[in-house]
Amino acid sequence: MKKLDLGKENINKLLISFSIPCVISMLINSIYNIVDQIFIGKGVGTLGNGSTNVIFPLIIIFNAFASLVGTGAASNMSLKLGEGKKDEASKSIGQSLIITFIISILLSVTSYIFLPKLVYLFGCTDNVYKYALDYGRIIIIGAPFMIIYSSLSNIIRADGSPKYSMIMLIIGAIINIILDPIFIFIFKLGVKGGALATIIGQIVSFIIALLYLKKFKSITLNKKSFKLDKNIFKILSLGLSSFITQGTVLVLFVFMNNMMTKYGALSKFGEDIPLSVYGVISKINSLFISTVLGISIGAQPIVGFNYGSGNEIRVKETIKKVLIINLTVGIIFNLIFVLFPKNLAGIFISSTDPNYELFMEFAELMCHSFLLLTALNAFEMTGSILIQSLGKVKKATALSFIRQIILLIPISLFLCIVLKKGIYGVLYAGCISDILCFIIAIFLVGSEYKNLGKNKDLNLIEEPTCKNKYNGKHIIITISREYASGGRYVGKLLADSLGINFYDKEIISLSAKESGLSQKYITERDETKRKSENDDRLFIAESNVIKKLAQKESFVIVGRCADYILKDNKYTLKIFLYSDDKSKINRAVKYYGLEKANALKEIKSINKSREKHYKYYTNREWYNLENYDLMINVDKLGVEQTADYIKEFIEKNR
């Protein structure tokens, strides 16, 4: 985040920087499973492929919980950083680490105990059973390492280090690829060898992920960060869409496994071949899913940060570009599935396998039916992730549910049971549900997209142009003032009289340009509204603007700690204006519309807020006379004469 400004940097550059490493990271997660499938398929055969397919639902479960916490924490961190709340961002990460550790241990122990029953629930056949247990027990041992590093990879990307996350996963994948053939072919360990290679790579990735905890860029972790409180539910809610997406994939995978074995047994393919082929094709399809999700998740920090900062125009631009990119990716993958099904399936089986011909025939059938219109899925997956980045959890969750649960399963059951289409009914249900889901997603995503920008600033403050007519010595007048003292009006009169620019609200447009924050965001956090929060990014932006102005022109500026920001500028005259309570009440009622009965209380509250804000950023007391060159009671001279008095003072001391 320090190197790439999410609020100002070119969107294309940000997407390349964040999404490409994220895509590679996601692809590596898929490659873990695909590599095992390839070597096991070549070394063990169809039954070996079936075993990895049966255990794959467990891996989906592990990834689902990793996404629940990791994506939620990453989304929350991006939103909080966009709002300038670093402490809350730090807490979200610390709490997520604690809850991830607890969940990973519970999942591993539970799945290991119930594995013999789970494999049958996941669609295992009697022939595949032994292979599934051998493979699954070892995979479960490595589950805590996988869950923790997968969760952390989301957080690391959101922290602005997508390359670190990518390298972490690449190293683990390379280790897995090297060890797979050694364990399977040289040591003759079969499916156990594939599982061992996988968890060794995962352990290495886990260690690298932990090393990042001391390298965070945008937050600082401390003991308080790791204390669990009710905010953990907010974090988990932001990851709920990703969790449900994985959950629906799990339900679909288990459903499809069982449908493949049940209706496959009634066809010429038998129960083992459809189960094995579905696993193989699903793993290949996971490359498409990983690419789309990688691009979308990589865009999450950009969308979340700018949405939190009120920059909805940049949010819309990002969403539009991500949708176009992902639909293009979908079309490319779709063409590959349709044109080269046998080439893809042939990677996972030896030509000497007795089931080779039926295996290839079913693979081609599946690509030409179930995956016929898979490109349309890109819109649903992208929309769900990006809507989640806006904090719209319910809509994102609903979108995740539609294809797998609401459409695909009922359509499959209808075609198989009612229309009695058997195994073909399951396959053709895929493309039918893809069409229907795409239509629904257009309406859901489109409505959210149209709403962006509707609440943008209605009266944008235009960037001021220099209107200086002043020919005297370079001068900058900073005016600090009590609320309702007439200080702002004094400053405006003085600037007009001298023929120099006056800056108050005008700083908002310049700060927006400097920081990438929206004018709405800055206005909402303007100093008269800073009741309890400070925004470092806004202060830095305003400071930079004020210093740049001081280098090129004379001007009058009101508030914004300008006296402190320009304390070392020799051309600066620092003034503090105040007034008695009665006069402040009269001005507040007349000019600001306050009720007389509550006016003094409101005036004191605003001045207290200004005092705290000044102390926070300057470590100085607002009312300390040593901070100023002049302190004037406006009531003694009146507003107009106070402005004249300051002008005379300047002219005498040029």
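That was protein one. Protein two is written in the same sequence-then-structure order:
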Amino acid sequence: MSRDNNERAVSSEVESPISRLYFWEKEHADTVYMTQPIDGRYIEFTWQETLVQARKVAAALRSRNYPKGSRIAILSKNCAHWIIADMGIGMAGHVSVPIFATAGKGTIEYVLEHAECPLVFVGKLDEPEASISYLPGNIEQVAFPYKGADVPVSWDEFTNIAPITDNPIPDMDDIYSIIYTSGSTGQPKGVVHTFRTLSWAASHSIHTLDVTDQDRIMSYLPLAHITERALVQLSSYYSGMRLFFVESLDTFTRDVKYCAPTLFVSVPRLWTKFQMGILSKVSQKKLSFLLHLPIIGKKIAAQIRKQLGLDSARYYASGSAPLAPATIKWFTKLGINISEAWGMTENSAYGTCCVPFREDKIGSIGKAYNGVDMRVAEDGEIQVKAPCVMIGYYKDQEKTSGVFTNDGYLRTGDKGVVDSEGYFTITGRLKDIFKTAKGKYVTPAPIEAKIMENEIVEQVCVTGNNLAQPVGLLVLSEEAKKESNSAISASLLQTLEAVNLTLESHQKLDRLIVFSEQWSVDNDLLTPTLKVKRHTIEEKFASVITDTYRDKVVWTR
């Protein structure tokens, strides 16, 4: 864990992830690989049991005589059979196409049609009836063995076939998966990754974090997202670490405690919810007092980690979006040192990380991983080149050509800076920068981070295109909603004044607007990875944003 990112020599050659599966099957057949909770029982899958099922999937797909490289979709929340299906797809020489379990009708229909999928696996879903109704009738539908996956072909029926007995290994330059981005605007782009690109990231990540077959990790962030796919699923093929799944949102804490993860990765929205959950049981004033006591403080911090199920974790991480520095500092007092990392679908989520954790670098996304070449262009854009970068966008040569520079660097769209030690800091998205009515440009991300330092704020979006001054839109935490409007207004007004003191005149916020409705995936205001859909929010609340107000803190119905 203390190993410097740049100590290892890096080769572009990497062992096939499929051959790694055969290794575990042969050398560690009876070792438990996955644990799946079903109806309160924890079902274990050894490597041998996993591979038998995967071989049956491959056999069933072969029997359908699809052309090599056919796209096979997976529509499900994380579960053991998601992994098994993906293994079988690869063994059969086909391409897996994951779809977010929260995807709506338009996205599901678009991905299945765009990728020309002849078959879709359907598994654990929050609203199975609705999601299944979006599936076109001309595509074969196969159910994972979970409640609600009510489609024509059952898992038992599909896998009622002798497993393949050969050990096929696809070429490393064959397409492994097409991962459709959960972008905040327009139709999702199909990011094309080969076995080589994804596996290069996965195989090298385990060295940076010293991951071994003794590690345990919760697989609960969507497998349809690049981070979980490359740095959890595929990394487990190379390290042999154990995967644990969550039965439902209601059993999350129970399942985390059962897993006792040694590695724990989350996203800002969930870290904030953990923080609010702790503060709902003990006030910040009392917690601060207890943590400052020499002996009692350590015991209290250890007890909180145990209640969260994180008392065995040696590495904590956050990604997908910036985590407020104040939140990271808050968790450090509990002995939870959250390392931020950066990556994107296009580069296999393998760009930078803050390992080992350094408190003086909080707010940074860390240094480039060994073998990753990163630079800041003249316009401030972070650009990256590495063997883990995608080969292009599916069926879209124009977008593919436009996202690469003439010398082969990927244009990330992130604006940032790099310090003398090689630590990068993202200052915003180039496409999120807006111009006020005064013709001045404003980058919202740093301002949003300052607002989030107020612990009663759970979600925030700074906007102001063509306004005289920017405004801050926000949603309060559940705990804050128990307070009176006057007390909350006073707190937010104090935050507004404090933030504005740090900003140039054209950046100063005119007001803060409080929304009662939570921004969520269900109401299409968050992406499946819980990023704010800035442009959707701006469109939906245009009249609220542009209206005139007397108060500096405005409450909406």
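The radius of gyration is 24 Å. Keep this in mind for the problem set.
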